[in-house]
Design a protein that fits this description.
The strands form four sheets. Strands 13-12-11-14-15 form a five-stranded mixed sheet, with no helix packed on it. A four-stranded mixed sheet has the order 4-1-7-8. A four-stranded antiparallel sheet has the order 3-2-5-6. The chain folds into three domains: about 80 residues, Sandwich (Immunoglobulin-like); about 110 residues, no CATH class; about 130 residues, 3-Layer(aba) Sandwich (Glutaredoxin), CATH 3.40.30.10. The protein has about 375 residues and is an alpha+beta fold. About 45% of the residues lie in helices and about 20% in strands.
Length: about 375
């Protein structure tokens, strides 16, 4: 076989297997500042660490290298002159990042679509935050007249909501991008939430749904889904605990009908967490069925609200039907991702909670004779 034919076959094989270098090279030029060193910083949920650095040449040119980059874009910072430029980098990228004068306000990006999109959000956001800082500094002047103070407050408020509108507009318009994930977590000075707290979950869910199509393998998608679960749990807890006296739940039964735990107010309720997938439910449910039948005619009604922590609907429904469970059986079919686990701090299965007719949690993990003794007291 000719050498040229071998080389051609090798080249085609490389293309067909989709091989891609795991290295990243970043180059560019920084001018207009006295700083001489440029750093590359890796950003993870737990830490930030410098992984490369270099010195500018006499024209301000530089090169940075990342030896092993992930296949899915991850967040990094270029640090120069005390300022950070955020980038999303993936294996094989060759971006060019340059700036003249003020680093963050003037930097440009080429060769990385996600990083360029991130720049379009980041530069105006930082500029807006700096404007707010300047207005706050002016407001701290003790010599301001009341009229001047009022005017500055109005200017601060207007600027604050202008930045907010732009931030949310960017997130919605670019919901399928990793830049939108970055924008979700940016906060102005003094902010706790993106917009107004509980409704933030709408934006997180919008981005997560789009990323499931555009970046299904990204670790940032999994982080968003976990954050959504936590936010849902917090919303449910804060909105329902006041009215019910305990964290309320609403889940579908085996027929798909949603049933609220608080709909049982006035009854003594055993909230029982279990799993058909664990395979130890027969004996536990058999004992509970005897107790359930014993208190069927009690003066104060007794009910069981049993939550299945499962992911397989057929398996769950089969267990309910084969064991002929006579009480309320529900599941959101999210398994260990169910927000109900966090709301009740469930660390193991089975776990149960006993709620009296006034809606007060009176016992946890109560079984057998101990449960019967407590029911004797509460249902008389």
């Amino acid at each position: 076989m000719k050498k040229s034919t071998v080389l051609l076959a090798w080249s085609v094989a490389l293309l067909l297997c989709g091989c891609r270098s795991s290295k990243v090279r970043i180059s560019g030029r920084f001018v207009g500042n006295d700083a001489k060193t440029v750093y590359l910083e890796q950003v993870t949920p737990l830490a930030q660490s410098i992984i490369d650095s270099t010195t500018l040449d006499k024209e301000g040119n530089y090169r940075l290298f990342l030896k092993t980059a992930p296949q899915s874009p991850a967040l990094y910072h270029i640090i120069y002159n005390g300022e950070r430029i955020p980038l999303f980098l993936a294996a094989g990228d060759r971006p060019t990042v340059s700036s003249v004068g003020n680093v963050v306000r003037n930097y440009t990006v080429a060769g990385s679509e996600e990083s360029e999109l991130l720049r379009r959000f980041y530069q105006p956001f930082v500029t807006g935050a700096q404007n707010l800082d300047k207005l706050a500094l002016r407001l701290s002047d003790a010599g301001l007249t009341e009229a001047d103070r009022k005017a500055l407050l109005e200017e601060y408020t207007a600027e604050y909501y202008r930045i907010r509108r732009e931030q949310l507009h960017f997130i919605i318009e670019n919901k399928a991008s990793l830049a939108a994930v970055y924008a979700l977590y940016q906060r102005l000075p003094g902010d706790t939430y993106l917009f107004n707290g509980d409704s933030d979950v709408v934006y997180f869910r919008t981005v997560a749904e789009a990323l499931e199509q555009s970046h299904p393998e990204s670790p940032y998608l999994q982080s968003l889904l976990a954050e959504i679960t936590r936010m849902d749990a917090r919303i449910n807890l804060s909105s329902n605990i006041v009215e019910a006296g305990y964290p309320d739940l609403e889940m579908p039964d085996i027929y798909g009908k949603p049933i609220r735990l608080s709909s049982l107010t006035g009854k003594v309720v055993l909230l029982d967490f279990w799993s058909a997938e664990l395979g130890n439910s027969n004996a536990l449910n058999a004992e509970l069925k005897e107790i359930y039948a014993k208190y069927a005619e009690a003066n104060t009604p007794f009910e069981v609200y049993q939550v299945a922590i499962d992911t397989s609907k057929p398996l769950w429904i089969t267990a309910v039907q084969e064991q002929r469970l006579p009480w309320i059986s529900v599941s959101d079919l999210r398994g260990k991702a169910s927000s109900s686990l966090g709301m009740y701090n469930v660390q193991k299965l089975p776990t149960n909670f006993l709620i009296d007719k006034e809606g007060t949690l009176v016992a946890r993990d109560i079984y057998g004779k101990s449960l019967e003794a407590k029911l004797d007291e509460l249902t008389r």
